[in-house]
Amino acid sequence: MTDRRIPLAELEAGVPFARRHIGPDAEARAKMLAQVGYGSLDELTDAAVPGTIRSAAALGLPPARTEPEVLAELRALADRNKVLAPMIGLGYYGTFTPPVILRNVMENPAWYTAYTPYQPEISQGRLEALLNFQTVVADLTGLPTAGASLLDEGTAAAEAMALSRRVGKVKDGVFLVDADTFPQTTAVLRTRAEPTGVEIVVADLSAGIPEEIAARGVFGVLLQYPGAGGAVRDLRPVVAQAHALGAVVTVAADLLALTVLTSPGALGADIAVGTTQRFGVPMGFGGPHAGYMSVRDSYARNLPGRLVGVSVDADGRPAYRLALQTREQHIRREKATSNICTAQVLLAVMAGMYAVYHGPEGLERIARRTHRYAALLAAGLRAAGAEVVHEQFFDTVTVRVPGRAAEVVAAARAAGVNLRQTDADQVGIACDETTTRDRLTAVLAAFGAQADIDALDAATADALPADLARTEPYLTHPVFHSHRSETAMLRYLRRLADRDYALDRGMIPLGSCTMKLNGTTEMEPVTWPEFGELHPFAPIDQAEGYLTLIRGLEDQLAEVTGYDKVSLQPNAGSQGELAGLLAVRAYHRANGDTERTVCLIPSSAHGTNAASAVMAGMRVVVVKTGQNGDVDVEDLHAKIAEHRDRLAVLMVTYPSTHGVFEEHITDICAAVHEAGGQVYVDGANLNALVGLARPGAFGADVSHLNLHKTFCIPHGGGGPGVGPVAVRAHLAPYLPNHPLQAEAGPETGVGPVSAAPWGSAGILPISWAYVRLMGAEGLKEATQMAVLGANYVAKRLEPHYPVLYTGPGGLVAHECIVDLRPLTKETGVSVDDIAKRLIDYGFHAPTMSFPVAGTLMIEPTESEDLAELDRFCEAMIAIRAEIDRVAAGEWPAGDNPLRNAPHTAQALGGEWTHAYGRDEAVFPAGVSAADKYWPPVRRIDGAFGDRNLVCSCPPPDAYEG
């Protein structure tokens, strides 16, 4: 009898996670390698990746662990965090995420694996959810146009500062910040203002703008409402005074407070900013959260970030899309005043759905309960002889206890509550949705007070000013009144998800965007309360688990990239770019090289590079790109020679934006260094390098990374993201820091680039788990498979569509660009036609017209198996055959399946007058009727939506007929 025993050690090892993460198995890899013409992954990458950049040593990372082992490690880290009742405030509050939203949005891959809605026909569900969010913000702030979210409150305020300077009448002067503004917001403003020559002045504006400041000129004013200390005051006098000086007024407002207080718009504000965190989004030690901005009508077309608008499809029916996309940074480049190219979509969807579920009455009830607890707390403290600083407040009470503040805070902490010590004499206490009677009693006891809550309730009036009571209606649209039951809400979320296309449906082959597997094991810990419910300004000894995870991830990323130090604070790739450039600027200034302000950027670079450089106080000089897609080395040397004494930095993406491993990168780095400059390697394409090459070792000084690309944080429909900055040792003293958490960065740092000390800390467990699960060999294998997948697709498509750029051996990196321009010239079939036709085949389109107009950039990622890669290739080949039929005159140029794509189910009804059949329209080659994805709308008219800007929920009668 055959002995079939398997050694126990082998059985105990379990299935390596890399086998789950990487799609093609051994047999599939062999087929793919044969197609490409190589015998092994190592042979392929030896040919594709220049030897001059290759790392000789393997990554020094711990061995890969199994999924149960990694979850156990994360559980142990979570248990080291101490979650106390969060009554610190300052823009971060306890909140209760309705389980129907937690399970069906935050934990649902139909929502978290979607991509930015650049293909709106297959993003209608998420666009409707964002339109809800915009409506919530616009209604509550009393300003008519709101964006689809910004990164956080601090950076939203900084965006408002830049907007005020751009659109206001006063072009010089100072930006005036009220002294009662959140300290982290003021710090972010200072970081952003100094490089661009803006002077920040902080002053007590409770009695108006001081004459000596007014005399200097003021281009913008920022007011906190309610203030950081809790005070609610009438802002109308200072707003009027600011307007008389020609200043643009921004109000940073608490949305929950606005359910019971007069809106910023009604107070005269031009811009409102803030966070939507307390609308059902966990604190997560600081993020991710959806910041917001709303503006008066005249500023709508200057709004930074993304804006969802209402347009019409080919049948004239209402349909949603991103409006005014020409404002994106890859269009405006160095003329942009903002580098924001993303949003916090997943969190904005959660916040919007929180408002949908509760409705205006429910939100007001939460607000009034929150305020009632604060009023009772103040009354109890007064009764015990304590001095409550403000008579009128919403949720935050400031108490003066001379010399006793530390004692009170310590007593509360011992009772399980975190308060805020503002100085030796004052304590701040913030109530929220999670506040309870027991918590109130514990806080009173910490002050040495005792009270009967019911007796206090009977005897205590509210502390909201009567002349600021809200009378304006809000959330009147039916969507905020139709989903009160969990059943109705569940079905609404499902209905919207069904209108979208995400990774849970199929491949999203977007070049430069790396839509890879977001493993469920990686995602699971994000919603654990030990990670989700920690306040970012909690005492640091309560965050031991977080700090261990953060330091561990920083070390892992430093090892992977070859740099010496990493900061995880930037909460988007754009912010990582800015942080890296600020570090370079600070380094030069510290060396006395203040004249080094020139930033060289290849013409093919992503537009955020140029925008970030300008925001960092640099002057952009463009370097030409050669015919092969590489940096034009001759032009680069000429620009270095021309600007030698002024050269600050070269920004270059590697592999290139064209998807090629450039062979001269080490020479380029050396030339810049010889001239005294620094080299910034944009880490957007790091997933083609991990385990093979390290930017910090082949000549770069600084990079930002995209954890939402290479390291598996999901795109979430356009956010959240994390954009850490990694630097060599000489730049480490200039990384971001934070005024409220000394451990967040060096004392000599450039200041915070995000409102929270560690940015979007709440999603860092995802990337930590990914690295831990994969180990050094798994990470390298993932990179090699990404390169193999891209080359496999390129080889299969090359006979049908020319591949525009290749590197050594005719190979591409992790993505390839197919050139459609000759076909368009010959047949009139455009890149748009092919992208929309792919929807009929059940695919999201690749990246359109970037970095080259009229092309598609395809990135398959290592997570897609061979069957899906082949399904995509066969769809593209079938589409080429359809184009040939147009070229042959079989189908008219104006009436063919490509020009009319995508086709909806509704389009099949009634009389059919097209030159092709119904089956050809909706069931092209390889598409199964049983598995058909039906787009909810036909092709959308983008220009119509831009001409007729509608950015909030349209009335129901808009859909009639």
UniProtKB/TrEMBL annotation:
Its cofactor is pyridoxal 5'-phosphate. Gene3D superfamilies: Aspartate Aminotransferase, domain 1 (3.90.1150.10), Type I PLP-dependent aspartate aminotransferase-like (Major domain) (3.40.640.10). The keyword Transcription does not apply. Its EC number is 1.4.4.2. It catalyses: N(6)-[(R)-lipoyl]-L-lysyl-[glycine-cleavage complex H protein] + glycine + H(+) = N(6)-[(R)-S(8)-aminomethyldihydrolipoyl]-L-lysyl-[glycine-cleavage complex H protein] + CO2. The modification N6-(pyridoxal phosphate)lysine is found at K709. Keywords: Oxidoreductase, Pyridoxal phosphate. GO terms for molecular function: glycine dehydrogenase (decarboxylating) activity. Residues 782-903 form the Glycine dehydrogenase C-terminal domain. Signal peptide: none annotated. Residues 19-447, 454-736 form the Glycine cleavage system P-protein N-terminal domain. Belongs to the GcvP family. This is Glycine dehydrogenase (decarboxylating). It comes from Actinacidiphila acididurans.
